[in-house]
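Reviewers of the previous submission asked for a worked example of the structure-prediction workflow described in the proposal, so we include one complete record here. The input consisted solely of the amino acid sequence. No template or homolog information was supplied to the procedure at any stage.
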Amino acid sequence: MTRVLIADTPDVVVMDIRMPDLNGIEATRQITTFAAIRTVAAGGALIAPSITRRLIADFTRTPRRAHPRPLPTITTREREVLTLVGQGLSNAEIAVHLTISPATAKAHISRLFTKLNARDRVHLVIIAYESGLVAPPS
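From that input alone, the workflow returned the following structure tokens.
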């Protein structure tokens, strides 16, 4: 019988290298390079792009307010990034679309969270629709 003990802030992790689906070495590599772990550990939320796209589809079926929400505090580039977030693009896709690095795309999104007081990426999508940057499909 295997017994697993989990501490709030572990200093050491013992990993079995002969696991059935993914060996321990590869699992450790993925865990230490997967940004989602850091996001969740910092109190953030993580939603897969496929789920975000489905939420956007559901959101666009609901009628929105007639007057767009103004966004005077964001820059032109942040407005472009918010539009692409509203369309469901990932950071990597935004970077390619705007010919910027993924780190720069992430920085723009972080500033949007702060400037727009957004809780998470889905909240940014809602703001993009409410501001008129993204229109529901016809």
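DSSP finds seven helices and no strands in the chain. We consider this example representative of the routine output the project will generate in years two and three.
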